[in-house]
Task: structure prediction
Amino acid sequence: MAIEIMWLGHASIMVRTENTVLYIDPWKIGTDMPSADIILLTHDHYDHYSRDDVDILKTPRTRVVSPMPADVTTDPIMPGQSLALGDVIIEAIPAYNIDKEFHPKKNNWVGYVINILGKRVYHTGDTDHIPEMKGLKVDVALMPVGGTYTMTADDACRALEDIQADHAIPIHFGDIVGTGKDALRLSEIAPCSVHILSPGESFKLA
Result:
């Protein structure tokens, strides 16, 4: 059974299986997207936590996981914690900047490893290349490449060596910061297969 990973633009992702629809940091999404079983929020910057987009996607049964005390949160989580939601296990991985001030470690913001159908999908959140990435061993890593607030493509390449991912999808470019050239740069140097998507395009993991 395939896992569909759709890039919605910027850092927004939909992960879908036959039984589960999961979103990470939905922002600027259309009203025609399927409703969410699970929504994961990495931090509360406006381009990652959009209340309007969450409201479009959620239903009374939607689980909203976040490290912030947002009023939409149903399942609070902190770095290093795990959470089982039905057949999906969510691991919260620290996400922070090392040499800039935009995402302080003390804020306890996160990325997520999603364990689904025997596969591991890692959305780093807004982060630099950090020690906590080492040895995560995931099937797909969703990697910011735009720089300024997060990793550059070269940083992402070094991070992928630690993460030991089989596949990578560049994100966090094309809106606010970063361009397609950053995604292309990652594809040229990464130690794994890189899939550059257009907004609304999917990669399927068998």
